[in-house]
Design goal:
The complex is a heterodimer. By secondary structure, chain A is mainly alpha-helical. Chain A is 75% helix and 0% strand. The chains are: A mainly alpha, B alpha+beta. Chain A: One of its GO terms (cellular component) is plasma membrane.
């Protein structure tokens, strides 16, 4: 449906179409990149993400201190040359802990995203392509999962299972694939009626090959956008659970549990740097993912035209 | 040096933020000698009647019956609503309350006779007589009793009323600790005598909705999640309380309480050590501190092969700098502990083996015990690594931190520690019988007035008691059994001192420290006495200077 509307629009602007398409030959990718780069917030987000992900990956080499090394005689020290962002309530370097904590937070975000998107894409593709009973069954499953309030279900599950990193990721992945599934199903419903699908069927291609080899690549645009936004969501969810003491357990640091430990009136009053920096990191990261996601959505949508 | 930088920086912060320069700052460990106000006392006039005192607390009571509760939130309420024969004063001596005088004890130590004050009225107007006392203590020795305190009365055979105001307790054997056990609030026989003893714990009409005692305050209402209201007992036998009402206000956590205190919404809270620095800055609040009758410890599970060898346990204690713990995370508000007895007790024995911070000695002891460094630096013996978990309850910030800190101390000597947290209920379930599923645990004991170590250290308390460490020592068992037969306190102290020295030497626990307790009290509140164990002590003497 999306594509046909776009075609209509293009037909209504024959002049623009002629000048651009005849004037230069461009690949789809270069158009997408150009459109993305025109969005300043998206570029800002991408640069921030590159810095954040890069420094998390390089944490062992960048971090000036052992993130778990405590110096009880230097608790809640203010930011200084030695401790760039100050120290926490056990005298550990907050900067180093942020770097290592970022690894955990980003790891949770990315792995949960890959899991959720994989499940969601598969379910959505099967439901959309086969339709009928398969569709009805899979979509009712989606409805059931969506009907639970997400954060409460998360808290319950994590409280019943003992909190640990792998369980956290699994719970995220198994609860968050529904949006992707609906998205992909919608794409498949329109795409499967196209001529190229008919052509593929005619030459006797198997269903699986048609789904994953032919249709899916065309449906990837919205999935990439949803996936990008999901990473930010997972990082936020992990922080929330860790903040409630149900996430990653100490002494492993994550941005969320660093915030938990700074939960004290006295720390708020005397050591502003302790709650501030993990909070800022969560804010920046999630914001950047959202900016990039918005930028990608515009760049991948054929209806949005380069300025 | 770093510390002075830190102190001065935080001082600058405080000055710039609040423009107050009252002494102390965050680094004032030495202000806590005995009961002492950290702020100046205002000039005080004569006590006034009236006012509603609001106490902030994060724990809600469980049961309002003094025979059945095991939590401090319930104890706080029942200490106000009920009164016992005797009470423990702030110096941990026994004082008569419902009783008129100290008991008369027969020469063989088997018969204890208490004479009661006349004219004491229950909140419903009935007079308290010897029959009520007999009824109350018969609950403990009844075969159907469900009271968790029944074990205190194993030696009690009979309670009888000699006349309307005289009660005689008869014991099977002399029990020096008996004097401290007659503090339980007296229940009204006329309201409860028809309830079978087995069902008394579940009798909600009394225990939850309308407890009737002879204490200074009457129960008014309890709204779960919000508050519990008490009003003055006009007929209280020690004199009408100055306060008209006492209201317990429930808040979610200590942060919420601190903010309520700041805004003046509560008059009283037990202040956690971590927030003392903030509360000190409140102009309208006095901080009272006193050494609490308790100690905090790291308990080891002696049934696990890792902890079998006492040299390993001693080495662990040598490897932990408890003085640093006290000076840093406790901010100086504690004293290093070496034995399972409080310095406040008459039985305190300072002459026990002490295991000071000494990494070299710790390594030597571990080497003597046959542990050798493995490839990853962690000690090994017979293919097993010296690695274990330390469990704490997730709600308690200080205990969680102690687990994490211990991890670093013990890594220095080649021991691997994994700190773990669990929710309180699940935590207790896991460490208590019959599970005993832990290696090490961060806990604290609030001690009874009587220093008898039996409940925690006797080997017959392993199966179904409080001896979670599964500590077994014949000599300690013998002393635990026999010390209560000795009526002379000095002689008994010497006996107990031996037991404490044995336990200190064997280190079934790494004794951490004796903490101070802080009470933050609005300056309006006068007449407060800080008791090392009882939070609601002589509240009828408190008054509001309005």
């Amino acid at each position: 449906m999306g594509k046909s509307e776009a075609q209509l629009q293009n037909n209504q602007n024959p002049k623009l179409n002629d000048v651009q398409s005849l004037g230069e030959k461009r690949s789809l990718l270069s158009i997408i990149v150009a459109k993305f780069l025109q969005n300043k917030l998206a570029v800002f987000g991408l640069i921030m993400l590159a810095i954040i992900v890069g420094s998390a990956l390089l944490a062992p080499w960048i971090a000036p201190h052992d993130p778990d090394f405590q110096n009880l005689r230097n608790r809640l020290a203010a930011p200084s040359a030695e401790f760039l962002l100050g120290t926490d309530h056990l005298g550990r370097d907050i900067f180093s802990r942020l770097l290592f904590g970022g690894r955990v937070s980003l790891f949770v975000g990315f792995v949960a995203m890959v899991g959720a998107v994989t499940i969601g894409t598969t379910v959505g593709a099967l439901a959309g392509y086969f339709g009928g009973l398969v569709d009805a069954f899979l979509m009712r499953l989606v409805d059931i999962i969506i009907s639970f309030p997400n954060i409460f279900l998360l808290i319950t599950l994590v409280a019943v299972l003992e909190p640990s990193l792998d369980k956290l990721i699994m719970v995220f992945a198994f609860l968050s694939w529904t949006g992707t599934a609906r998205l992909v199903r919608g794409e498949f419903l329109t795409l499967k009626k196209r001529e190229f699908v008919l052509a593929a069927r005619t030459i006797g291609m198997s269903n699986m090959k048609i789904i994953f080899g032919q249709i899916l690549p065309s449906a990837m645009g919205p999935v990439i956008v949803a996936a990008t936004l999901a990473v930010g969501g997972f990082i936020l969810a992990e922080s929330a659970l860790s903040f409630l003491g149900l996430g990653v357990q100490p002494p492993t640091s994550t941005w969320g549990n660093m915030l938990t430990y700074s939960q004290s009136v006295t720390i708020f009053r005397t050591a502003w740097w302790y709650p501030t920096f993990p909070g800022v990191m969560i804010l920046l990261t999630v914001l950047s993912f959202n900016f990039v996601g918005d930028g990608l959505r515009d760049a991948l949508d054929p209806r949005v035209i380069e300025k | 040096m770093k510390k002075t930088i830190f102190a001065s920086i935080s001082m600058i912060f405080m000055l710039s933020l609040f423009l107050v320069a009252c002494g102390g700052g965050t680094d004032a460990p030495d202000q806590t000698g005995g009961d002492q106000d950290t702020a100046e006392q205002q000039p005080v006039g004569d006590p006034q009647y009236g006012g509603n005192m609001i106490l902030g607390t994060s724990g809600e009571p469980v049961i309002l019956n003094p025979l059945y509760h095991t939590d401090s939130a319930s104890a706080d309420i029942t200490d106000l609503v009920f009164a016992g024969l005797m009470q423990t004063n702030e110096n941990l001596e026994m004082e008569p309350l419902v009783a008129k005088t100290q008991p008369e004890i027969s020469e063989d130590g088997l018969e204890w006779t208490y004479e009661l004050n006349e004219g004491i009225l229950f909140h419903d107007g009935a007079e308290l007589t010897a029959e009520d006392v007999v009824f109350t203590y018969n609950v403990f020795i009844h075969e159907d009793t469900t009271s968790p305190r029944a074990g205190d009365f194993r030696s009690l055979v009979n309670v009888e009323a000699l006349d309307e105001y005289t009660v005689k307790f008869t014991l099977a054997e002399p029990d020096a600790a008996f004097a401290t056990r007659v503090t339980y609030g007296i229940l009204p026989k006329h309201l409860l005598e028809d309830i079978p003893v087995a069902d008394l714990e579940d009798y909600r009409e009394f225990n939850m909705q309308n407890p009737i005692g002879t204490g200074p305050f009457k129960f008014v209402s309890w709204t779960s999640g919000q508050n519990l209201v008490l009003e003055a007992n006009e007929e209280y036998f020690e004199g009408r309380p100055y306060l008209d009402n006492v209201t317990f206000r429930f808040a979610s956590d200590s942060n919420a309480l601190v903010l309520l205190l700041e805004t003046g919404d509560i008059h009283h809270m037990i202040a956690p050590t971590s927030e003392i620095g903030t509360i000190e800055l409140y102009d309208h609040v006095n901080l009272h501190s006193t050494l609490a009758l308790r100690y905090d410890y790291l308990g080891w599970n002696l049934d696990r092969p890792l902890f079998e060898d006492k040299r390993v346990r001693q080495a662990i204690t040598h490897a932990i700098d408890r003085q640093e713990l006290v000076e840093t995370i406790m901010e100086g508000n504690a004293e290093v502990a070496h034995a399972p007895v409080s310095p406040l007790s008459w039985a305190y024995n300072d002459d026990v083996p002490k295991f000071e911070y000494d990494v070299e000695k710790a390594k030597q002891l571990l080497a003597d015990a046959g542990w050798e460094p493995g490839s990853d630096g962690i000690l090994e013996k017979d293919g097993e690594r010296l690695s274990f978990t330390i469990l704490s309850n997730s709600g308690n910030v200080t205990r969680r931190d102690i687990g994490i800190i211990t991890q670093q101390y013990l890594r220095e000597v080649g021991i691997e520690v994994k700190p773990e947290q669990m929710e309180w209920g699940a935590f207790l379930d896991q460490i208590n019988p019959p599970n005993f599923d832990f290696d090490g645990v961060v806990m604290a004991w609030g001690l009874a007035t009587d220093p008898n170590p039996r409940a925690i250290w006797h080997s017959d308390q392993i199966e179904n008691g409080l001896n979670r460490s599964a500590y077994r020592n014949d000599e300690v068992d013998r002393i635990a059994d026999e010390n209560t037969l000795v009526m002379d306190q000095a002689e008994r102290a010497a006996m107990l001192g031996d037991a404490f020295a044995i336990i200190a030497e064997e280190q079934p626990y790494t004794f951490l420290y004796y903490p101070y307790q802080f009470v933050a009290l609005s300056k309006e509140v006068q007449g407060f006495t800080h008791h090392p164990r009882i939070d609601m002590y002589k509240v009828h003497e408190w008054w509001l200077n309005q």
